[in-house]
Structure formats: C-alpha cells, structure tokens
Amino acid sequence: MATRDAEATRQNILDAVGRVLGRDGFSGLGINAIAKEAGIGKPLIYRYFGGLPQLLEEFGKDADFWLGLDDILAEVERETGGKEEQDYGELIRIALLGYARVLRKRPMVVEILASELTAPPDIIAPLARARRETGRQALEDFMHGVEPPEGVDVDAIFGIFLASLHYLILRGRVDSGFWSVPINDEEEWARFETAISMILRQVFART
Length: 207
Hints:
Blueprint: H1 2-24, H2 31-38, H3 42-49, H4 52-60, H5 63-67, H6 69-80, H7 88-103, H8 107-116, H9 121-142, H10 154-171, E1 177-178, E2 181-182, H11 186-205
Antiparallel strand pairs: 1-2
C-alpha cells in the first residue's frame, strides 16, 4: 500500500508540473505553484525529487506526455496500413508526420514548447535534456534496427524538419497561416505534409 501511495504521490506531482506549465508557462513555474496545483505541501516535492531541476528532468522523461507514443503508433498504422516499413527514409518521414499530427492535438504541450523560447536557460536545461534523450530513444525504438544510409547526416536532417514542424505548429497559436498556407485547417495542413514527404523522398533517393 505504501509503495502504491508513494507512486501515486510522485505521479500527482508530475501531473501538476504539466498543468502549471501548460496554463502559466515557465514564468509561473515554481515549487510553490506546483505544490498548490498538486494539493500537497512543499516538503513532499523535495522529498520525492530533491528540487525543481530534478523534478523537471524527471518530468521530461515522460515520453507519452511529450510524444503521445500510442497516438503516434496509431498514425503509423494508418500511414502504412499495418505493413512493416524497412526503408529508412520512409520511416523518418512517417515518424515526423505522425509526431506532428499528434502534437497538433496537444495544446498543453504546444504551450509548453512556446514558453520554452523565453524561459531562463537554467530552468530549460534539465527538461530539454531529458526530453531530447527520451525522444531519441523513442525514435531509435521506432526504427527497429533499420540503419541509416551511409554518409547521410540524419541528425541534421531530422532536426531541420522537426524544428520546421515545431515552428509551424507554434505559429498556428497566433496566426492562421504561414506563407499563404493555412495552418489550422486540416485539409490545408495536408499541403505541408505533402511537401515534407516530397522533400524527404528526394533527399533519401539521392543517397
């Protein structure tokens, strides 16, 4: 019973971090705010996590919160028709599009990503580090052993497209479109997906 209670308390604190960040951003984040949101005393946070940096790093390891892995896998199933893809470039394309589709449906995560742009580096660092490591591991698992083409800087390519998708989705919070293409309309968003697919297929076709 004690173990279950301790785990429930830890999860309650982590959930409270997500709610505070999604609602108030990093400017509203602190031990006091998290404790109030979780309905607990501050000492419990220090007891379970040690402090705010450690708490944020632990929060950053929640792959399902950030990535929505089950939802992404559902998108992959839809994209591939259940067939196991073995082409590295296609796997990258499917992973990026699946992630973008899920992220667009997670406004709390989008708000956190937006607030990161102006948050103090010392607050961002542990969260970003944990999220990066979690995302990298999730991608590695998703590729299920398929090796990248020799001589291709996959990290740079993936980073460019990931940054582009983040920007477009964040831009949708404040504007209806970018470069004359509507962002928040599902049919129009498909134009971005088509363009990304075309570019990635060309990139990996040349390797």
